[in-house]
Amino acid sequence: MRLILEVWRQASPQAQGHFEPYEIADAREEMSLLELLDRLNHQLIEANQDPVAFESDCREGICGTCGIDVNGTPHGPEDNVPACGQHVRSFHDGDTVRIEPFRAAGFTIIRDLIVDRTGLDRIIQAGGTVAVDAGTAMDADSVLVTHEQSEQALDFAACIGCGACVSACPNGAAYLFTGAKLKHLSLMPHGRMERGKRAVSMVAQMEHEFGPCSQIGECALACPAGVPLSAIATVNAERLRAMLRHRDN
Amino acid sequence: MAETDIDALRVVGREIDGHVPDVAPALAWEDRLLHYNLVNPSNRRGFTIIVVGTGLAGAAAAAALGELGYNVEVFTYHDMPRRAHSVAAQGGVNSPRSRKVDNDSIERFVKDTIKGGDFRGREADAFRLGQEGVRVIDHMQAIGAPFAREYGGQLATRSFGGVQVSRTYYTRGQTGQQLEIASAHALSRQVAAGTCHLHARQEMLDLIVKDGRACGIVVRDLVSGAVRAMTAHAVILATGGYGNIYYKATLAKNSNATAIWRAHKRGAYFANPAFVQIHPTALPLMSQWQSKKILMSESLRNDGRIWAPKAKGDTRDPNAIPEDERDYFLERRYPAFGNLVPRDVASRNIRERIDAGYGVGPLANAVYLDFRDAIGRLGRSVVRERYSNLFDMYTEQTGEDPFTTPMRIAPSVHFTMGGLWSDFDMMTSIPGLFVGGECGWSYHGANRLGANSLLSGCVDGWFTLPYSVPNYLAGYLGEPVLPLDDPAVTETLAEVEARTQRLTANKGIHGPDYFAERLGGILDVYASVSRNPADLPGAIREIRALRDQFWREVKVIGTADRLNQELETAGRVADYLELAELLVLDALDRDESAGAHFRTDHVTPDGEAMRDDDHWTFVSAWQAPPTTGPGAGKPIRNYEPLVFTAVPLQQRNYK
Ligand SMILES: Cc1cc2nc3c(=O)[nH]c(=O)nc-3n(C[C@H](O)[C@H](O)[C@H](O)COP(=O)(O)OP(=O)(O)OC[C@H]3O[C@@H](n4cnc5c(N)ncnc54)[C@H](O)[C@@H]3O)c2cc1C
Ligand code: FES
Fold first, then answer.
1. What is the pLDDT of residues A19-28, one digit of tens each?
2. How many A×B Cβ pairs under 8 Å?
3. Environment class of residue B273 by beta-carbon count within 10 Å: exposed (0-12), middle (13-18) or buried (19+)?
4. Does the pTM of the predicted model rise above 0.90?
5. Distance (Å) from the alpha carbon of B439 to chain A's nearest alpha carbon
6. What is the CA radius of gyration of chain A?
């Protein structure tokens, strides 16, 4: 299959970027989009040209390292699938595929398709953690958790931290990411101890680095981990709860 | 093989001491804890500890030492700690909490671990793994891992990897993810508290050693390209396994051996490099462009039946092959365990069928894993409930539906039992250099049990290194870290710069990946599921030739003063080309079969791995070759004898 790739090339955060067209004459349906980029890079290296910088690691949808915008959609045409799980079979012979980095005010471009997503980690550092030191926890079997509650916690804890939600959002908001963590920890017995305090500090950090939410819902469609859209409502609910209660928990 | 051949390649060194306390192995850890030195809380922040890696072992060690009040400098080549490869583990984490009435216990856990490892691991370490492993689940649950629960509110367990009890805790098929995120978040808490300093997108390229002690590391900032040194009182490596030396493995693309290989070249012994686990149920390669292999959990073997056509080169649709033309070869050869034989046995048999011409699929490189009978017996809905996420993953990758067409599976390199040698305190042969997680050795012997690696990452990081590292530090109270202008620092820095320079200046013709692929090909042929000693000297010659070719012909596009992924790959491949030789040498040297190390000249009459306990009950701890003297250029194989008192030596039998 023949594909034209228009790939964003940018040498550094300060440099001017542009789309560069490339042709892949032998793309195959079973290739993932990242393997398509591997193929392109192979071609570029053969021709002594600078390969396209892009990130990936597990290539099986769990580490959240990959992340590119494909024809304007984070990760690619299939909903809820990360770039490493998107396949060339979504395209047709002769198609032009536009590949660019995740676009968001909160993500600076480092080089080509690589962006700086550490703003998400700073939201976690602000309070997405549980204050229990090694060795001090009580027996996990004496903390009862219902089957349903642990399953629900996992639905939100499943976030892979890729940042597609931010990129999908016209406002560049990180509500889905932040809400997923608030919800996950609010369902965990130890996590509940700092529920109020956490909501205040994480939301403040989120607002400092990312945009506001106007409940459009693009984030949940893009999310490769299928984090439920209700996570965005969690942000406001948890913040309000904390404001009304003035308690740590 | 003739004595002289191997003697031309290596020197036999000395017996080394694992520093296991002289008590029964079950009491060793308790005894050691009693004798450890402590550091007063007010003195802790005066000590700087470098941790390389933020996987389960590294994130935990850093967080725990930070919680205790040490000054911790944490390095990872990822953009965030949470990305470490531990995140990809699926099945679960063992813990011998022994709540059920299925007769589990720490002793049984040790027996399973040692026996599973074919008696080439250290017994006292396995006891510690079990003893400390009991509280891992409590801690991980408290810091955020939502373990599966029974309807009564208690933790759920499953059985895993051939053991007869149910001791595996899990969070659906994403246990590694939940443990990794919880640990990375615990590290984040220490970053916020100011005890841990995170250096992301920084790759360790060398170890600084002064007067025989580990004093720091040299790192390259992967964004700016700047190379710098950092010094400390102790260094912990938690940098994961080296399975990617086989080019296509189930490991994350970036997992590599550079940190441990550089440490080895600075004096750290390398234990059993040839012990590499090949997992039987990965997706086969479907095209040349497939970038890595993908694991399908071994739980599939509980209900799926493995078969190949009875006729060679049978290209019919699997559903068109009648029952009497199918060969359920595992059930045929191992009537007692059938499809549930251990990983190494399954992989070897599958590979044998493929190599003998019975492989299926477009590249004839797979066998079938068939759910037809399970669906008939249990019904579609039960099979769906048990395996839906794995079936979905298979469909996502292949576009085929396992409900109607048998899965195609093939063995893949998955885990390395070998790694830097360490003593009972997890300290390597370089004082001040510690290891944790897959980059070390010790528990898993010649074959790792399923769900024991997540456990070892957690135990090493949370519940072992926080005791043993302070014991070492206590001897250096008040001593400053090595100044950055010390010659040991500046010389190491200069060597790293020179190496980088050499790579970028080379006017070669092939990118580094070209060499990685060829190296993987050599190892796959000669040092995979079985090793024929007659071929191994030739493999060493091929690796040497490829290494020479690499340094002549490698081409690194772009400069070193910016983000340059080709340069990163080139450095890693250069190290693989050296480690690969040691791996094959170890396979040649170890004149027995053990676990995953299957030598074609050490086979029982019915075709199974045959150990030689009289001569090989020890761990090989390879020392880098001296540059001068009679043994110049030859690696030295030291040995630590292994003693089994709680689990007596016995031959495995799965027939
Ligand atoms: C697909 C798959 C499934 C698995 N499933 C299971 C399972 O169900 N149960 C189980 O027990 N085990 C499982 N395993 C094995 C287990 O996941 C790993 O052995 C374990 O997670 C390794 O953890 P680690 O902390 O040692 O290293 P890793 O998680 O690999 O972390 C290594 C860290 O070191 C850093 N690093 C490495 N080199 C450098 C350097 N030079 N400079 C800077 N940083 C560096 C990396 O950035 C990373 O942070 C599985 C493995 C695979 C591949
Ligand atoms: S590379 Fe890990 S999620 Fe895509």
1. 999 999 999 9
2. 208
3. buried
4. yes
5. 18
6. 20
